[in-house]
Write a structure and sequence with these properties.
About 40% of the residues lie in helices and about 20% in strands. The chain has helices at about 15-30, 50-75, 90-95, 120-125, 160-170, 190-220, 235-240, 265-275, and strands spanning about 5-10, 35-40, 80-85, 100-105, 115, 130-135, 145-150, 175-180, 225-230, 245-250, 280. Helix 5 packs across helix 6 and helix 7 (about 235-240) packs parallel to helix 8 (about 265-275). The longest helix is centred in the C-terminal third of the chain and has 29 residues, at about 190-220.
Length: about 280
Amino acid sequence: MARPVTVGLDGSDESLAAAGWAAHEARSRGAPLRLVNAWPGPEQTDLTPGREAAWQYWSERALRSARAELDADQPETTIVTAQISGLPAPVLLAEAERAQLLVVGSRSIGVVAGFFLGSVGLELAARSMTPVVLVRADGHEERHGDVVVGVEPREPCDDILEFAFDAAARRDGVLRAVHASRVPAIRGDAPWVVDVGLNDARKEAEHALGEVLAPWRDKFSELRVFEEVASDSPARRLVAAAAGTALMVVGRGPRRVGFGPRLGPVTQAVAHHAACPVAVVPQR
Protein backbone atom coordinates (compact mmCIF):
# COMPACT_ATOMS: atom_id res chain seq x y z
CA MET A 1 0.00 0.00 0.00
CA ALA A 2 1.16 3.52 -0.78
CA ARG A 3 2.37 5.65 2.08
CA PRO A 4 -0.49 7.73 3.47
CA VAL A 5 -1.28 11.39 3.48
CA THR A 6 -1.38 12.02 7.23
CA VAL A 7 -3.27 14.80 8.98
CA GLY A 8 -3.12 15.93 12.59
CA LEU A 9 -6.65 16.19 13.96
CA ASP A 10 -7.69 17.79 17.24
CA GLY A 11 -11.30 18.67 16.46
CA SER A 12 -10.62 22.38 15.87
CA ASP A 13 -11.96 24.16 12.79
CA GLU A 14 -8.40 24.45 11.51
CA SER A 15 -7.69 20.74 11.83
CA LEU A 16 -11.03 19.84 10.19
CA ALA A 17 -10.16 22.14 7.28
CA ALA A 18 -6.79 20.38 7.08
CA ALA A 19 -8.52 16.98 7.04
CA GLY A 20 -10.80 18.05 4.18
CA TRP A 21 -7.83 19.34 2.16
CA ALA A 22 -5.84 16.19 2.92
CA ALA A 23 -8.70 13.95 1.77
CA HIS A 24 -8.74 15.57 -1.67
CA GLU A 25 -4.94 15.41 -1.80
CA ALA A 26 -4.94 11.71 -0.88
CA ARG A 27 -7.45 11.00 -3.63
CA SER A 28 -5.36 12.82 -6.25
CA ARG A 29 -2.28 10.84 -5.17
CA GLY A 30 -4.08 7.49 -4.99
CA ALA A 31 -3.01 7.25 -1.36
CA PRO A 32 -4.80 6.35 1.86
CA LEU A 33 -5.70 9.09 4.32
CA ARG A 34 -4.56 8.71 7.92
CA LEU A 35 -6.20 10.81 10.65
CA VAL A 36 -4.05 11.07 13.76
CA ASN A 37 -5.01 12.45 17.14
CA ALA A 38 -2.36 12.89 19.80
CA TRP A 39 -3.61 13.07 23.37
CA PRO A 40 -1.46 13.53 26.50
CA GLY A 41 -2.47 10.36 28.34
CA PRO A 42 -0.19 9.05 31.10
CA GLU A 43 2.76 11.17 29.90
CA GLN A 44 1.15 14.27 31.39
CA THR A 45 1.63 13.71 35.10
CA ASP A 46 -0.81 16.42 36.22
CA LEU A 47 -3.67 14.90 34.20
CA THR A 48 -6.18 13.43 36.66
CA PRO A 49 -7.91 10.13 35.80
CA GLY A 50 -11.19 11.97 35.23
CA ARG A 51 -9.66 14.52 32.88
CA GLU A 52 -7.72 11.81 31.09
CA ALA A 53 -10.90 9.83 30.46
CA ALA A 54 -12.70 12.95 29.21
CA TRP A 55 -9.80 13.86 26.93
CA GLN A 56 -9.72 10.36 25.48
CA TYR A 57 -13.48 10.41 24.92
CA TRP A 58 -13.41 13.70 23.03
CA SER A 59 -10.39 12.57 21.02
CA GLU A 60 -12.21 9.42 19.92
CA ARG A 61 -15.32 11.44 19.13
CA ALA A 62 -13.35 13.93 16.99
CA LEU A 63 -11.82 11.09 14.98
CA ARG A 64 -15.15 9.28 14.50
CA SER A 65 -16.96 12.43 13.45
CA ALA A 66 -14.26 13.51 10.99
CA ARG A 67 -14.00 10.04 9.49
CA ALA A 68 -17.76 9.75 9.01
CA GLU A 69 -17.89 13.10 7.20
CA LEU A 70 -14.90 12.31 5.00
CA ASP A 71 -16.17 8.79 4.21
CA ALA A 72 -19.37 10.36 2.91
CA ASP A 73 -17.48 12.97 0.87
CA GLN A 74 -14.68 10.69 -0.39
CA PRO A 75 -16.09 7.12 -0.45
CA GLU A 76 -13.34 5.90 -2.79
CA THR A 77 -10.53 6.95 -0.43
CA THR A 78 -9.25 4.54 2.20
CA ILE A 79 -9.38 6.31 5.57
CA VAL A 80 -7.75 5.03 8.73
CA THR A 81 -7.62 6.64 12.17
CA ALA A 82 -5.10 6.49 14.98
CA GLN A 83 -5.31 7.79 18.54
CA ILE A 84 -1.80 7.95 19.96
CA SER A 85 -0.76 8.82 23.50
CA GLY A 86 1.90 11.51 23.47
CA LEU A 87 2.52 15.17 22.85
CA PRO A 88 1.45 16.40 19.39
CA ALA A 89 4.84 17.44 17.97
CA PRO A 90 6.80 14.20 18.59
CA VAL A 91 3.79 12.05 17.69
CA LEU A 92 3.27 13.82 14.36
CA LEU A 93 7.00 13.95 13.57
CA ALA A 94 7.10 10.17 13.98
CA GLU A 95 4.00 9.82 11.81
CA ALA A 96 5.56 12.03 9.15
CA GLU A 97 8.43 9.58 8.70
CA ARG A 98 5.93 7.00 7.44
CA ALA A 99 3.88 9.42 5.33
CA GLN A 100 4.34 11.02 1.94
CA LEU A 101 2.79 14.25 3.22
CA LEU A 102 1.84 15.69 6.61
CA VAL A 103 -1.08 18.15 6.78
CA VAL A 104 -1.94 20.31 9.79
CA GLY A 105 -4.31 23.15 10.47
CA SER A 106 -2.96 26.63 11.04
CA ARG A 107 -4.41 29.73 12.57
CA SER A 108 -3.50 33.37 12.23
CA ILE A 109 -3.53 35.61 15.29
CA GLY A 110 -2.91 39.18 14.23
CA VAL A 111 0.64 39.84 13.08
CA VAL A 112 2.10 36.91 15.01
CA ALA A 113 0.62 33.56 14.03
CA GLY A 114 0.80 30.12 15.62
CA PHE A 115 -0.07 26.79 14.07
CA PHE A 116 -1.96 23.71 15.28
CA LEU A 117 -2.09 23.88 19.05
CA GLY A 118 0.06 27.01 19.18
CA SER A 119 3.56 26.50 17.83
CA VAL A 120 3.30 22.80 16.96
CA GLY A 121 2.70 23.38 13.25
CA LEU A 122 5.67 25.71 13.11
CA GLU A 123 7.86 23.10 14.77
CA LEU A 124 6.65 20.41 12.39
CA ALA A 125 7.33 22.56 9.33
CA ALA A 126 10.81 23.35 10.65
CA ARG A 127 11.81 19.80 11.62
CA SER A 128 9.93 17.30 9.46
CA MET A 129 11.85 15.65 6.63
CA THR A 130 8.47 15.06 4.96
CA PRO A 131 6.71 17.99 3.28
CA VAL A 132 4.25 19.73 5.61
CA VAL A 133 1.14 21.56 4.37
CA LEU A 134 -0.44 24.26 6.55
CA VAL A 135 -4.16 24.79 5.96
CA ARG A 136 -6.27 27.57 7.46
CA ALA A 137 -9.96 27.31 8.24
CA ASP A 138 -10.45 30.95 7.20
CA GLY A 139 -8.09 30.90 4.24
CA HIS A 140 -8.85 31.03 0.52
CA GLU A 141 -8.86 27.53 -0.94
CA GLU A 142 -9.07 26.24 -4.49
CA ARG A 143 -9.11 22.50 -5.12
CA HIS A 144 -7.84 23.03 -8.66
CA GLY A 145 -5.88 25.84 -10.18
CA ASP A 146 -2.51 27.48 -10.17
CA VAL A 147 0.40 26.48 -7.98
CA VAL A 148 3.04 29.04 -7.05
CA VAL A 149 6.58 28.05 -6.07
CA GLY A 150 9.19 30.34 -4.61
CA VAL A 151 12.59 29.68 -6.21
CA GLU A 152 16.06 30.77 -5.19
CA PRO A 153 18.23 29.60 -8.11
CA ARG A 154 21.46 29.95 -6.14
CA GLU A 155 20.29 27.36 -3.59
CA PRO A 156 19.60 23.63 -4.10
CA CYS A 157 15.93 23.32 -4.99
CA ASP A 158 15.28 20.02 -6.81
CA ASP A 159 13.08 18.58 -4.03
CA ILE A 160 11.05 21.79 -3.92
CA LEU A 161 10.61 21.93 -7.69
CA GLU A 162 9.68 18.24 -7.94
CA PHE A 163 6.93 18.76 -5.35
CA ALA A 164 5.64 21.92 -7.07
CA PHE A 165 5.65 20.49 -10.62
CA ASP A 166 3.87 17.34 -9.46
CA ALA A 167 1.27 19.34 -7.51
CA ALA A 168 0.50 21.57 -10.49
CA ALA A 169 0.30 18.61 -12.88
CA ARG A 170 -2.15 16.74 -10.66
CA ARG A 171 -4.34 19.86 -10.42
CA ASP A 172 -4.30 20.33 -14.19
CA GLY A 173 -3.28 23.90 -13.51
CA VAL A 174 -0.48 26.33 -14.19
CA LEU A 175 2.79 26.53 -12.29
CA ARG A 176 4.14 29.99 -11.55
CA ALA A 177 7.80 29.98 -10.57
CA VAL A 178 8.63 33.20 -8.72
CA HIS A 179 12.07 34.52 -7.93
CA ALA A 180 12.20 37.83 -6.09
CA SER A 181 15.16 39.74 -4.72
CA ARG A 182 15.72 43.25 -3.53
CA VAL A 183 17.16 45.77 -5.97
CA PRO A 184 20.96 45.51 -5.80
CA ALA A 185 23.08 48.56 -5.08
CA ILE A 186 24.49 49.89 -8.34
CA ARG A 187 27.56 52.12 -8.12
CA GLY A 188 27.60 55.08 -10.46
CA ASP A 189 26.22 58.58 -10.66
CA ALA A 190 24.81 58.61 -14.17
CA PRO A 191 21.22 57.33 -14.49
CA TRP A 192 22.11 55.21 -17.50
CA VAL A 193 24.76 53.38 -15.43
CA VAL A 194 22.10 52.43 -12.87
CA ASP A 195 19.63 51.40 -15.58
CA VAL A 196 22.19 49.18 -17.30
CA GLY A 197 23.21 47.62 -13.99
CA LEU A 198 19.61 46.81 -13.06
CA ASN A 199 18.90 45.42 -16.51
CA ASP A 200 21.97 43.17 -16.32
CA ALA A 201 20.97 41.93 -12.87
CA ARG A 202 17.48 41.08 -14.10
CA LYS A 203 18.78 39.22 -17.15
CA GLU A 204 21.15 37.24 -14.94
CA ALA A 205 18.27 36.30 -12.60
CA GLU A 206 16.04 35.29 -15.52
CA HIS A 207 18.81 33.10 -16.95
CA ALA A 208 19.47 31.43 -13.60
CA LEU A 209 15.76 30.74 -13.03
CA GLY A 210 15.38 29.30 -16.52
CA GLU A 211 18.32 26.98 -16.00
CA VAL A 212 17.03 25.41 -12.76
CA LEU A 213 13.55 24.97 -14.26
CA ALA A 214 14.71 23.45 -17.57
CA PRO A 215 15.02 19.78 -16.50
CA TRP A 216 11.64 19.88 -14.78
CA ARG A 217 10.01 21.49 -17.80
CA ASP A 218 11.33 18.54 -19.84
CA LYS A 219 9.98 16.01 -17.35
CA PHE A 220 6.56 17.70 -17.13
CA SER A 221 6.41 18.76 -20.76
CA GLU A 222 2.61 19.17 -20.87
CA LEU A 223 2.49 21.49 -17.87
CA ARG A 224 2.25 25.22 -18.49
CA VAL A 225 4.97 27.03 -16.57
CA PHE A 226 5.34 30.78 -16.18
CA GLU A 227 8.51 32.37 -14.85
CA GLU A 228 8.46 35.59 -12.87
CA VAL A 229 11.47 37.62 -11.74
CA ALA A 230 10.70 40.56 -9.46
CA SER A 231 12.79 43.25 -7.80
CA ASP A 232 10.98 43.12 -4.49
CA SER A 233 11.08 41.65 -1.02
CA PRO A 234 10.80 37.85 -1.57
CA ALA A 235 8.34 37.45 1.31
CA ARG A 236 6.12 40.31 0.15
CA ARG A 237 6.10 39.11 -3.46
CA LEU A 238 5.26 35.51 -2.56
CA VAL A 239 2.48 36.49 -0.15
CA ALA A 240 0.96 38.65 -2.89
CA ALA A 241 1.31 35.82 -5.42
CA ALA A 242 -0.58 33.44 -3.11
CA ALA A 243 -3.88 35.28 -3.58
CA GLY A 244 -6.30 33.14 -5.56
CA THR A 245 -3.96 30.18 -5.97
CA ALA A 246 -4.53 26.55 -5.05
CA LEU A 247 -1.21 26.02 -3.30
CA MET A 248 1.95 27.93 -2.38
CA VAL A 249 5.16 25.90 -2.27
CA VAL A 250 8.20 27.15 -0.39
CA GLY A 251 11.40 25.45 0.67
CA ARG A 252 13.24 24.85 3.87
CA GLY A 253 16.94 24.15 3.88
CA PRO A 254 18.77 21.75 6.21
CA ARG A 255 20.37 24.55 8.21
CA ARG A 256 19.68 24.98 11.91
CA VAL A 257 19.79 28.40 13.52
CA GLY A 258 19.91 29.40 17.19
CA PHE A 259 18.61 27.00 19.81
CA GLY A 260 16.56 24.78 17.53
CA PRO A 261 15.23 24.24 14.02
CA ARG A 262 13.84 27.35 12.40
CA LEU A 263 12.15 28.23 9.16
CA GLY A 264 13.96 30.86 7.13
CA PRO A 265 12.50 34.39 7.28
CA VAL A 266 10.88 34.17 3.84
CA THR A 267 9.30 30.76 4.43
CA GLN A 268 8.08 31.80 7.87
CA ALA A 269 6.52 35.00 6.53
CA VAL A 270 4.75 33.10 3.76
CA ALA A 271 3.51 30.46 6.21
CA HIS A 272 2.11 33.19 8.45
CA HIS A 273 0.49 35.42 5.86
CA ALA A 274 -0.33 33.55 2.63
CA ALA A 275 -4.08 33.28 2.01
CA CYS A 276 -3.91 29.74 0.63
CA PRO A 277 -2.56 26.36 1.79
CA VAL A 278 1.24 26.49 2.12
CA ALA A 279 3.50 23.49 1.51
CA VAL A 280 6.87 23.66 3.27
CA VAL A 281 9.22 21.27 1.47
CA PRO A 282 12.56 20.27 3.00
CA GLN A 283 15.44 20.39 0.57
CA ARG A 284 17.76 17.48 1.32
